[in-house]
């Protein structure tokens, strides 16, 4: 009924794009932050301005990753080497932290103005998982996870949360490394072989595969089913509610 292998005792869910409709918010924030930086960079260096692609660049370099990791990954793809700077750098600072802080400020602004919507099918699935006696956790690279879950009204559906803030405190490597998902399983008292991973990001399904989890479910919101499989998804659905219909 849940589409899970025998022996699975817990489910680990990414948040943005799996539970909440916030992936597009992050993509738009990354585009604005990077485009503003790239215009400034082009003016200072005399290089052409090539804007951030909200689909291909987002999927390849930032989706599913911790904020600083995403910034570094995209800058490397453009051959740009910025100093790390400090966590308190202002959004206009030409540093990795500055660009990252600009992106986060944009996301915070949208969340304050528009709130958070959920994927109803995902909430149905999480409730069904809990009713079946399985444990649940959120594993998200976002440092805003607790705030988003609370705003969405679904924080009470999860027994544990491993997010960007926890990863920083515990020095956990971000996705595509498996560390955050392994920590999520441990927080539920489970081994990876006893847990399933649910992800919409390529880096996330890579993390699930690298951690040798019992099942890695790719959630295809943007027409990248083949890429999700290529990066490690065992199965791909367009909505988690689809799993409730499997026999």
From TrEMBL:
Name of the top EC class for this enzyme: isomerase
GO molecular function: beta-phosphoglucomutase activity; hydrolase activity; metal ion binding
Phosphoprotein recorded as keyword: yes
Catalytic reaction annotation: beta-D-glucose 1-phosphate = beta-D-glucose 6-phosphate
EC number: 5.4.2.6
Gene3D superfamilies: HAD superfamily/HAD-like, Putative phosphatase, domain 2
Keywords linked to the UniProt accession: Carbohydrate metabolism, Hydrolase, Isomerase, Magnesium, Metal-binding, Phosphoprotein
Cofactor(s) for this UniProt protein: Mg(2+)
InterPro entries, alphabetized: B-phosphoglucomutase_hydrolase, Beta-PGM-like, HAD-like_sf, HAD-SF_hydro_IA, HAD_sf, PGP-like_dom2
Pfam families noted in UniProt: Hydrolase
PANTHER family (UniProt xref): 6-PHOSPHOGLUCONATE PHOSPHATASE, HEXITOL PHOSPHATASE B
Family: Belongs to the HAD-like hydrolase superfamily. CbbY/CbbZ/Gph/YieH family.
Protein name: Beta-phosphoglucomutase
Species assigned in the record: Planotetraspora silvatica
